[in-house]
Specification:
The structure is a single chain. With 182 residues, the chain is α+β, with helices and mostly antiparallel strands. The chain has one domain. The chain has a 4-stranded antiparallel β-sheet with strand order 1-2-3-4, covered by helices on one side. A hairpin with a 2-residue loop joins strand 3 and strand 4.
Amino acid sequence: MSSPGSLERRRARSGGLSLVELMMALSVITIALMAILSMIMHTTSDKEAQRELAFAKDSASWILENVKAQGFNKPATFLSDVSGYLSATYGAPTNAPPPPTSDPANPLLSYYTVPVKGLNYTNLDGTFWNPTTPPTAPATNAGRATIRLDQSNSNLLSISVLVEWKGVHGSRSYTLKNLYSP
C-alpha cells in the first residue's frame, strides 16, 4: 500500500505543467508573435511605397493633362506655344538634363525641373539629393519632376515627365510619356 504522502505527490506531478513544457509553449508563442509583427511592418512599408508611387503617377499625369488642356491647335505655332506654356508655368528650360545624369546638352531637347510636394527628394538647402551625393541634412517633403520636351521630330512633339523621389525602399522614379501632333 502506498502512503498518503506519496499519493499527494503523484497528484501534484500529474496535475500541472513542468518547467520545460512551459518554456516550450512560451517559445512557440514568441516565435508566432515575432512573425506577425514582421508581417505587419512589411505590409506597412509596402503600403507606403504604393502610396508614393500613386502620388508620383498622379503628379506626372497632372502635369501632362495641364499641357493637353491648353488646346494648342495652330500647327504653325504649336511648338512655340507648348514651350511658352511650360516656360511660363515652370521657369526657363535648360538643354542639359539635371544631375545626376551627365548627358551632353542638346538644342532639340528642353528640360524643366519642378518640385513635387509630398515626395522626399530635396535637401533642406534646396539642392537635389542623389545617390552619389547623399544629403548632409534630412530631406524636405518635395520630390523632383523633370519635364523633357523633345523637338527632334518636326511633326511630333514628345513630352515626358520623370518623377524622382527617395522612398521607403530607396531611390525610386516613375516616367510618363505623351506624344503630341500639331
